[in-house]
C-alpha cells in the first residue's frame, strides 16, 4: 500500500458487524473517514443448535453488501475482515466465513479468543500507562492488561451477552432464580482470571458499555465524541441494572431508545459488567468507543 491509501477494517461479531474506513497517512497514523455499526445477531440460537442459522447469515450478507458498496464509494484499496466468537464456535463457521468472504472480496480471518483480546487492547489503548481492557461481546468476554503497547496478560472467557440471555433469560424481566443462576455462572467463569495481572485504569469496550454511556448522557444514538472516554460508576451500573430488571424489552426500548437487538441483551451485558467490577474490586471504569476494529486497522498501517 502507498501513503494515503484508503483501507477498511471489519469486525464480524456475535451481535454486531462494525466497519471502519480510514486513510493511511503513513508512520502508523490514520484518519477515520467513516465508522459503521449494524446488528446481524450471528450468534442467535447458537447455544442451542451449534450452528449459525440461515436468517442470521442473510442479515450478515445484507450488511456486508452495504459495507462493500460503501468501500467502493471510498475507493478502498484493502479490506480486512475478522470474525470472532459466533463464527469461531459454530459447526458451520468455516462455511459461513467463506460465504461472507465472497461478498467483500477478501478472506475473512477467524481469530482465536486470545488473538481477539490482543487486537482489542491495541485498538483501545493509545497511552503508555498500564491499562486493563474488558471487551464484552455477544459470545465471549476478553480481558487484557498491558502497557507501552506490550501485552502482559490476556484471557478470553466463554461468557457473553447473547449467551447469558439465551441460556438464562428466556423471558424478560427474568425471575430472581434465573438472575442468581446467571450471576453464579458469570462468577464461576471470572474465577479463571488472575486478578493480580489486571491493574491500571479499567476500560470497557463493545456494545454494552457504549450503550450504557449513551444512556448516561441522554443520547438516542451512537455518538463517538460523546461516548468515548466517559467514566461510569459501579453505583450507576447497579441502578441501571435494577431498572432494566423491572422492565419488559418493549419498555426498555421505549424508555432508553435502544435498538431492539441491543435491548434484549443489554440486561445480561450489564450484569456481566457489574460482576466484573465487583470481581476486580473496582468502583468505576472508562468507556471506550474503539476496540477490535481499531486494532485490526492498526495491523494494516505502514
Task: Describe what you observe in this structure.
The chain is globular. With 302 residues, the chain is an alpha/beta fold. The chain contains 13 helices and 11 strands. The protein has 2 domains: 6-111, Nucleotidyltransferase, domain 5 (2-Layer Sandwich); 127-287, 2-Layer Sandwich (Nucleotidyltransferase, domain 5), CATH 3.30.420.150. The longest helix is centred in the first third of the chain and has 20 residues, at 54-73. α5 packs across α13 (292-300), α7 crosses α12 and α10 packs across α12 (260-279). The strands form 2 sheets. The chain has a 6-stranded mixed sheet, with helices on both faces.
Comma- or semicolon-separated keywords:
302 residues; alpha/beta; Nucleotidyltransferase, domain 5; 6-stranded mixed β-sheet; 5-stranded mixed β-sheet; 13 helices; 11 strands; 46% helix; globular
Architecture blueprint of SSEs:
Elements: E1 6-12, E2 16-26, E3 29-39, H1 46-49, H2 54-73, E4 78-83, H3 85-89, H4 93-104, E5 108-110, H5 113-124, E6 131-136, E7 141-147, E8 150-157, H6 161-168, H7 176-190, E9 201-205, H8 207-216, H9 224-227, E10 231-233, H10 234-244, H11 249-256, H12 260-279, E11 284-287, H13 292-300
Parallel strand pairs: 1-4, 4-5, 6-9, 9-11
Antiparallel strand pairs: 1-2, 2-3, 6-7, 7-8, 10-11
Helix pairs in contact: 2-4, 5-13, 6-12, 7-12, 8-12, 10-12
Amino acid at each position: 500500500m502507498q501513503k494515503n491509501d484508503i483501507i477498511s477494517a471489519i469486525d464480524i461479531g456475535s451481535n454486531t458487524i462494525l466497519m471502519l474506513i480510514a486513510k493511511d497517512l503513513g508512520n502508523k497514523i490514520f484518519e477515520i473517514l467513516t465508522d459503521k455499526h449494524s446488528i446481524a445477531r450471528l450468534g442467535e440460537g447458537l447455544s442451542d443448535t451449534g450452528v449459525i442459522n440461515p436468517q442470521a447469515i442473510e442479515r450478515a450478507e445484507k450488511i456486508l453488501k452495504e459495507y462493500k458498496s460503501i468501500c467502493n464509494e471510498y475507493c478502498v484499496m484493502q479490506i480486512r475482515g475478522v470474525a470472532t466468537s459466533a463464527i469461531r464456535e459454530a459447526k458451520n463457521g468455516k462455511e459461513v466465513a467463506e460465504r461472507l468472504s465472497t461478498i467483500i472480496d477478501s478472506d475473512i480471518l477467524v481469530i482465536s479468543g486470545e488473538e481477539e483480546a490482543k487486537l482489542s487492547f491495541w485498538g483501545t489503548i493509545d497511552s503508555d500507562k498500564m491499562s486493563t481492557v474488558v471487551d464484552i461481546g455477544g459470545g465471549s468476554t476478553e480481558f487484557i492488561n498491558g502497557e507501552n503497547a506490550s501485552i502482559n496478560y490476556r484471557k478470553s472467557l466463554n461468557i457473553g451477552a447473547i449467551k447469558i440471555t439465551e441460556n438464562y433469560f428466556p423471558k424478560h424481566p427474568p425471575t430472581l432464580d434465573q438472575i442468581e443462576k446467571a450471576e453464579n455462572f458469570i462468577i464461576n467463569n471470572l474465577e479463571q482470571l488472575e486478578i493480580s495481572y489486571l491493574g491500571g485504569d479499567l476500560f470497557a469496550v463493545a456494545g454494552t458499555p457504549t450503550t450504557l454511556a449513551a444512556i448516561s448522557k441522554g443520547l438516542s444514538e451512537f455518538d463517538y465524541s460523546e461516548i468515548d472516554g466517559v467514566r461510569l460508576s459501579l453505583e450507576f451500573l447497579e441502578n441501571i441494572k435494577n431498572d432494566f430488571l423491572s422492565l419488559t424489552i418493549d419498555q426498555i426500548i421505549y424508555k432508553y431508545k435502544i435498538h431492539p437487538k441491543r435491548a434484549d441483551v443489554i440486561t445480561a451485558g450489564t450484569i456481566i459488567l457489574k460482576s466484573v467490577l465487583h470481581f476486580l474490586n473496582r468502583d468505576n471504569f472508562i468507556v471506550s468507543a474503539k476496540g477490535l476494529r481499531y486494532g485490526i486497522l492498526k495491523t494494516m498501517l505502514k
